[in-house]
Amino acid sequence: MNGIAALGRLAWLDDLVLGVRLSVSGGRSGWLRLTLITAGVGLGVGMLLVLAATPTAVSAREQRRADRALGASAEQAGPGTLLSQTTQTQFHDEVIRGRILRPEGDRAPAPPGISRLPAAGEMFVSPALAVLLDGPGGEVLRERWSARVAGVITPPGLSGPDEVYFYLGSDTLTTEDGAARAASFGGGGTPTADATIVILAVIGTAIMVLPVLVFVTTAVRFGSASRERQLAAIRLVGADSRMTHRIAAGDALIGALLGLGVGGLVFLVLRGTVGGLLPADFSPYAADLRPVPALLALILMAVPTGAVLATLSALRRVVIEPLGVVRQSGVRRRRLWWRLIPPGIGVALLYPLLGGLTGDVGDGTRGQLAAGAILLLAGVVVLLPWLVQAVVRHLGGGSVAWQLGIRRLQLDSDAAVRSVSGIAVSVAGLIAVQALLATSIAATSGTQPPADRFQAVVYTNGADGKGWGAALTGTEGVEEVRTAGYGYLRATPQNEIGVSVRVGDCDALRQFAPLPSCTEGDSFRAVMPGWESPTLPSGTVAAFHGVDDKAPVPRWKVPADLHTVTLYSSESAPMSFLATPAALGVRPDLRGLETDAYLMRLDRADPDAIERVRTTMTRLDPAAPLQLFADRRIGDQLADGRQVAQGCAVLLLLFIGASMLVNVTEQLRERRRLLAVLAAFGTRRRTLSASVLYQVAVPAAVGLLLAVLIGSSLSAVLLAVTQAPITFDWPAIATMTATVAAMVLAVTAAGLPLLFRLLRAPELRNE
């Protein structure tokens, strides 16, 4: 009995091997089918490997950032301590970050990426910063530090290959300058992730994974008709139905295994190009893109297993007899009820999060968010077959090409639906991502200070700004410097903290909030979204503190008809009131007042004026915040995230276009005899071309409509989760939909040369 069982297992293995042999040595037709399957699975596996490598790349980047962060603070100076001050500046559109270092002993540690600490007047720079220093305008940037470049920071000290970073040596840095003292590096913790960033990452992963999985399961069905005819011939020589299923499994298995190899090559190619699509803060080293071992093992097991299961599932509706293949005909009415379950569960998971995410987003919340979003997007895949069938069932009439295309969809729409379901999922996800980005960008770009009077402002941020006004006035390209100050209103002597008030003339105050009108003597109540502003009721008499202690303390009665204005987002602390000097009874030149803002009017004909201002501030106080009015950086705070989304969208559209082209090619080859018969009976090429276009365009139109509906719903949910106003950018949605529709038409048109070749008389021959 054991011998019989062993023979049964060997027979099962022999059937698989036979399927592999038939696939590899099946002649021109078999090789073409194997090539299509391998290419399709390879494209999908390459994308899956890139996604599986993303956590490793992010972890490596964050680990390097943590390794270069300062360790535990030291209270006393010693031979092994150093002072460090983090600084940030900007050169044109490039943000430059770095550290100013001063050793306090001969055993002070060096940060990762450099072999020693830079001496005073020396600096170590990243390769990207070295390119900027040697590039156009580099002489202006070199004046900012007046330091000699002593070396280049190696990869262990950088978050990525394109990061613009430096270490600058100093012999004057002190703790009074805001420097921190430490004896080691490597004390950085994991930063708290913003809720919007978490959601963008989750949705971005979902819209990348789902289309890939859809296409991989579709790719293993390429050439199914010719394979079924081959299996019928095998049945003619004595094989039973179970044996043919095992042979088909072997045929699919070799295609999946070869696809894994091709996918590895695709991954190696993508690994070298992905960084160019991402901004500097996100670009990874190629060595960092290593698939997570668990995810790699899952891909290696899931792809061959899924290929076999998809093949066996496709054979369920096919009866393979010794004399031919019989497909179970008749229109199957697809059921709707179970297709509503995945999106329904997704909505149920997302509903408790509608109140908004605050603080650190834990793993449980991330999992709930990911599961809800993925299930809602998966609703596109499960609902699309039912919806296409429901739509084409009521279509008819029209031209010959229309009738040919629609009748084909009415008889069997599975292949057409599979080819567009990945597109529909992608569009739905991209709509959700676009809504989040557009809302976040609009929240900042719509509230920028005007740049017609002043173009920049520098804040003391608590530092002593003595001499700043003169230094900025003497900077080349600065035409005027105006100051603004602050103080506190105390209603009673017991109120020691007081309510803050910004003081300046009307021109200065307009840089902090949009004013309805302003003349000397006016004052305004100020609010800022997301900030609970302490205030004083109308009619309250308050003492204004903020002038020289020797001067008399002015009294101010809060007017009853005070206008309320909304503060611009800026580097300064929010204020409860804005007031002109005459309103509070202080000197027009603000003498004696705490001056914390220096507003500058720059020479518009000098493009390097702002760069010289940055150079001046680097020498005065590298940590002082500098804001450029009407700067794109303010309106595009999520520009890096948008560039990441654009890079992913480019990869996704390229993948979808390639997969659709392979899919269209496979469908045309499967129907070559039918197409040749129609051509032999006099059907014009234009008619057949139009019918092929209708077979793709109708499911694509239905899929895009469903994608817009579900994508808009998901974007509304996600905007509610991030506590943002629910708005839809319909022009952007229309542009995206039109772009995808144009891609579908272009891919279909790319398959027409093959269609014309298949219309020739030799294609009438049958095996």
Automatic annotation (TrEMBL):
Alphabetically ordered keywords of this record: Cell membrane, Membrane, Transmembrane, Transmembrane helix
Transmembrane stretches, start-end: 31-53, 197-220, 252-274, 294-315, 336-357, 369-388, 415-437, 644-664, 692-721, 733-756
Domain ABC3 transporter permease C-terminal, first and last residues per copy: 649-754
Cellular-component GO terms for this entry: plasma membrane
Compartments (UniProt record): Cell membrane
InterPro entries named in the record: ABC3_permease_C, Membrane_comp_ABC_pdt
Pfam families: FtsX
Membrane topology: Multi-pass membrane protein
Protein name: ABC3 transporter permease C-terminal domain-containing protein
Species name: Micromonospora ureilytica
